[in-house]
Structures are given as structure tokens and as C-alpha cells.
Amino acid sequence: MRKMLPTLIPAPAMLLLDFIGGIEAPEGYDTIFGNRQNRLPVPLTRMTYGDIVEAQANWGNKTWVRKNWGYRTASSASGRHRFMRATLIGIAQEIPSLRGDMVFDKVLQDKLGYYLLLRRGYADFVDGKLSAFGKALAQEWASFPVLSACKGAHRLLDRGQSFYAGDGLNKALVAPERVEAMLRKVLAAARLQPLPDDPVEPDPPPASKPSGWAALLDLLLKIFGRRK
Fold first, then answer.
1. Burial code of 101-124, b = ≥16 C-beta within 10 A, e = fewer?
2. Among 118, 110, 83, which residue's Cα sits nearest to residue 199?
3. What residue ranges of the chain have pLDDT lower than 70?
4. pLDDT, tens digit (0-9, with 9 covering 90-100), for 36-91
5. By C-alpha distance, which of 220, 225, 227 is closest to 89?
6. Residue 72 vs residues 48, 59, 61, 62, 67: alpha-carbon distances, Å
7. d(CA 219, CA 189)
8. Distance between alpha carbon 190 and the CA centroid of its chain, in Å?
9. 49, 93 in Cβ contact below 8 A?
10. How many CA atoms lie less than 13 Å away from 203 in the CB half-sphere?
11. Looking at residue 76, what is its pLDDT?
12. How far is CA 193 from CA 123, 134, 168, 185, 198, in A?
């Protein structure tokens, strides 16, 4: 079975997404890394999925950013939920129905954000089966802290540090106590609202599946909006 983009976002999950967005991108859905959205000729929410994936190759390139925008730091993080270029490409690989010509508006961004929550174990969290969900959030969103000492992406971490501390770019922007309080609130709300099934669609017949270079070409065409 192949995964599909969620059609509905449960209220408890939206509560968490709003909290994440308020920390990651308080300026809203048009935000790009460093609040450089004023450099864009078109607002992010009017661009397509494929346009953004293509542009992120520049936004995350230090040489390009320094030459064209005059900044010394670079990141492809985009939107209210700070989607990295690799993340958007990965989601497109997982969800065949996601097209490059889809507009990257509020609705699509929230659905993608909820998909990331599901991928990080949200369903197990609200089911009481995943005690490390706080760390999972910190692994997805760099401004979120780990909730206990652990090994991070670059070094050993204390409680309250970004999972990516030490990369010279990221740091936690919210106290772990606030994250814990929000997770308790989300968990309490989720107990009152059952989680819908993770949407999937049937696999196509084997003969219709491209392989090798054909699969790669099919993916690139989809991302950049040439496959309708």
C-alpha cells in the first residue's frame, strides 16, 4: 500500500502544529530561513511545490546566498513548519499523489506538517506507546529541545539543547518545560478525539512501476510539475 497525503488534521495534532509553527516560523507560512522572504519575487504560499524544491537548492547554498543576498549562512528551511529540501523530496518519494504543480499554501503546508508528525510517531504517542516523542520532535524541528540528556547529531547533549547543537547554525528556541506542557495538553485532547486511520492507496500493478533510471526521471518530473 502506498501512502497518501492526509486529508483531515485532527484538532489535537493541529494544536501541536500551531505550537511548532509559532516557534519555528512566527512570521507565518511565507517564512524562509533567516526571515529572508522579502528577497523572494513571489510569496512562498503562491509558489508551487516543485518551484520551492528547485529554489531551495539556492537558498541552502552558502556561495549562492552570499553572492546574491549577502548573507553568510544558508538553509533551505521553508514555510511555517520549516521544511528542508531533502524533506520535501523525501515526502514526494513516499506519496505518489503529491504533484510538483500543487501550490505551497497554508492548507498544503499543514497537511505536510501533519504527515511529518505521523512519520515521527504521533500515532504511537497519542496511543501511549511512544515515550520518546519529544526527542522525535527535536530531530524533525531543530529549534525544539531534547527533553533529556542524549546523543545528538553532533555531540552529547544536555536537556534543553537542540538535537543539532554544534552545527554552528541551530539552537533550541523553546524551554523543554513548555514542550512538555504542550505534549500533555495534546495528549489529553487526543484522548477525546480518536485518530483517523493513516490514509493509504493501493499499489499499482507491478507492470506500471518504473524502475532504475526510469523511476528517478519519473520522480524529478513529478517534483518539478511536469507530470500532471
1. eeebbeebbbbbbbbbbbbbbbbe
2. 118
3. 1-2, 193-228
4. 999 999 999 999 999 999 999 999 999 999 999 999 999 999 999 999 999 999 99
5. 220
6. 27, 11, 10, 7, 9
7. 38
8. 21
9. no
10. 6
11. 95
12. 12, 21, 41, 13, 15
Mean predicted lDDT score pLDDT of the chain: 87
Altogether, the residues listed in the chain come to a count of 228
